[in-house]
Automatic annotation (TrEMBL):
It is found in: Cytoplasm. It comes from Climacteris rufus. GO terms for cellular component: cytoplasm. GO terms for molecular function: cysteine-type deubiquitinase activity. This is Ubiquitin carboxyl-terminal hydrolase. The keyword Oxidoreductase does not apply. Its EC number is 3.4.19.12.
Length: 214
């Protein structure tokens, strides 16, 4: 939340670690929750799934509200920043921004842009990136050592207009995971996280973070 302050957001919201997916552990997360960030490893299994998912959606189509704020990822190690922007941008009506907030200005400027233009704009936007990459790993108890070629990736799960969307800048579009509500959002988002974990049962590096009322 130190970090939200640096971006010029009043401390009504905080990032909270989700310590486990069982109901009693979820009940410890302060409510309401307006976004969940999932940190997970990009493995071969995941990449295979991602390709299949993309082909399936392109064939079948899906419903994505035009009000969903989505951006592509063009900067390699900026998935944390983009996850954060996705979380805040799709809850901007709930956030209290300081007048000179760099993130507020970024969102206002980029609202009318395409997902690709937003990505390009972020490349020029030092203020947000620097703040984030320096504090992205504050929350990580153990940073992976440099020689581990682990590609860890962040995605955001948000509720826009009663649907749960997965926002991943590496994907060509948001993924609609079906209906949700403010009350059930944390549980619904965790169900999506569980699917990621079930696809890679040997993997342990999954970490969910909730954007919760402070």
């Amino acid at each position: 939340s130190q970090f939200l302050k640096q971006l010029g957001i009043h401390p009504d919201w905080q990032f909270v670690d989700v310590y486990g997916m069982e109901p009693e552990l979820l009940s410890m997360v302060p409510r309401p929750v307006c976004a969940v960030l999932l940190l997970f490893p990009i493995t071969e299994k995941y990449e295979t799934f991602r390709t299949e998912e993309e082909e399936r959606i392109k064939a079948k189509g899906q419903d994505v509200k035009s009000s969903v704020y989505f951006m592509k990822q063009t900067i390699n190690n900026a998935c944390g920043t983009i996850g954060l922007i996705h979380a805040i941008a799709n809850n901007r009506d709930k956030m209290n921004f300081e007048t000179n907030s760099s993130l507020k200005k970024f969102l206002e400027d980029s609202l009318s842009m395409t997902p690709e233009e937003r990505a390009k704009y972020l490349e020029t936007y030092e203020a947000i990136r620097v703040t984030h990459e320096s504090s992205a790993h504050e929350g990580q108890t153990e940073a992976p050592s440099i020689d581990e070629k682990v590609d860890l990736h962040f995605i955001a799960l948000v509720n826009v207009g009663g649907h749960l969307y997965e926002l991943d800048g590496r994907k060509p579009f948001p993924i609609n995971h079906g209906e949700t509500s403010d009350d059930s959002f944390l549980e619904d988002a965790i169900e999506v996280c569980k699917k990621f974990m079930e696809r890679d049962p040997e993997e342990l590096r999954f970490n969910a973070i909730a954007l919760s009322a402070a």
